[in-house]
Write a structure and sequence with these properties.
single chain; 161 residues; mainly alpha; two-stranded antiparallel sheet; two-stranded antiparallel ribbon; 5 helices; 4 strands; globular
Length: 161
């Protein structure tokens, strides 16, 4: 199936004035990488679900990238920014996948802001030097930590059911 199957009936679940109407088919992957059971992690725009973290992460990251490329930027800060600013978001991701904390949308968005700043500067570092050891070290380091937590969490969830 092209879109991983169809959803149920398309029922309306309203939260305040914001409708969380389920679309009849899955939202395309480029808008939300979540399955319907995780659509609480998304905002609804029109009838499409858009990942809340991605909606906060990428626009801010691209703004930071552009500003750091066109304006004066102290390159001596790069190591600190790229290594330290993602820590709160990565920690939250790991703790959630280990089952130690529950998902909370406000916390996720607030912790995404420093991550977006680091990612934006990381994009700029990459644009300036696609072979940057700093950029790729951070991507691989935090990426492997998050991948391990996601795999462990998925296995834990599968064995507990």
């Amino acid at each position: 199936m092209g879109q991983r199957g169809a959803l149920d009936t398309g029922t309306d679940r309203s939260i305040g004035s914001m409708s969380t109407r389920e679309p009849r088919t899955l939202t395309p992957l480029w808008l939300s990488h979540h399955f319907p059971e995780q659509y609480d992690r998304c905002v609804v725009v029109g009838e499409r679900h858009i990942c809340r973290r991605c909606l906060a992460l990428y626009p801010l990251a691209f703004v930071v990238m552009v500003l750091s490329l066109v304006g004066p930027w102290p390159a001596s800060w790069d190591g600190w920014i790229l290594v330290l600013l993602p820590i709160p978001s990565v920690t939250e991701f790991v703790l959630e996948h280990f089952g130690l904390i529950r998902y909370q949308s406000l916390r996720q968005v607030l912790l995404t802001i420093p991550l977006a700043m680091a990612l934006g500067r990381g994009f700029a570092v990459y644009v300036e030097d696609p072979t940057s050891r700093l950029f790729w070290g951070v991507v691989l380091g935090y990426g492997l930590v998050c991948l391990a937590a996601a795999v462990w969490g998925a296995r834990r969830a599968r064995t507990s059911t």
